[in-house]
Amino acid sequence: MVFFNPQQEDNLTAFITALSRQESSLPAGLQAQLHSIGQNLENRVVELPTIAASLPELNKAYKVAMAEERVHSHEEKATLVSATEKDPDTELLEHAIRILTAPDPVKAAQQDLSQVSGLVASNPLKRLFRMG
User: Fold this and answer.
1) Cα distance between residue 76 and residue 16, in whole Å
2) Is the pTM of this model over 0.90?
3) How far apart are CA 18 and CA 57, in angstroms?
């Protein structure tokens, strides 16, 4: 069973959000680094802020997404019942791994968000991750 602390959860969610807001793919070296992080995400989630800081556009989107996460972390969260009985942290982990290990993480994050475009609310990524 996977357990992210609230800060790790916010960092991961904000990073995926920042990826989805990029206009172009990341440099090949960063994509390779994300792929490596995705293969051991439980232990390497702490590296994502450093990755975000390495590109100005990604860093700006990450900071905006983190500010959004802080706002939403003060809101009351609803508990959703899942038919799969999966732990929300496990679902977050699996979803993030799929994005980070994709050939193009930016396109994968954008595609995932477009698939849930009908669920647009205060924070569609929270709904995507079934966290609020």
Assistant:
1) 22
2) no
3) 9
